[in-house]
Amino acid sequence: MQYTKPMIDQVFQIRKTVPDHLRAQIKLANPQLLDILADLYRDLHDKLLREHIKKLMSMAGPSWLSQLENPTLISRPHHNQQVYRGQVRQQEDTPKAETNIPSKPTVVPKEKIVIYRGQVVHS
Hints:
This protein is α+β, with helices and mostly antiparallel strands. The protein has helices at 5-17, 33-43, 47-60, 62-69, and strands at residues 81-84, 87-90, 113-116, 119-122. α1 (5-17) packs antiparallel against α3, α2 (33-43) packs antiparallel against α3 and α3 (47-60) runs antiparallel to α4.
């Protein structure tokens, strides 16, 4: 989603007023920002924060505003993405299969090799 300047300002206002433990999730680089705020809107009792979220959703579009009022109206797919410094990477839900590769036996030299000033010295 493309954020406009008033939407960015509204996200900053929300970030200032949200509780500390939720502040890490509220950032513009998060692709699920509006989904998180919609869930947060239903759980909060703070009227000021709810008003900020409602204003942001009205700027985002009528579908987001209707999602605040009726959460069962729109079923959104859950994307498993990991975002780090603007880079988006899909996460895998299924664990990778372990491959049983036999390890190579370590070769132990019979004689200790010492190198002194670029020359091999046998002891």
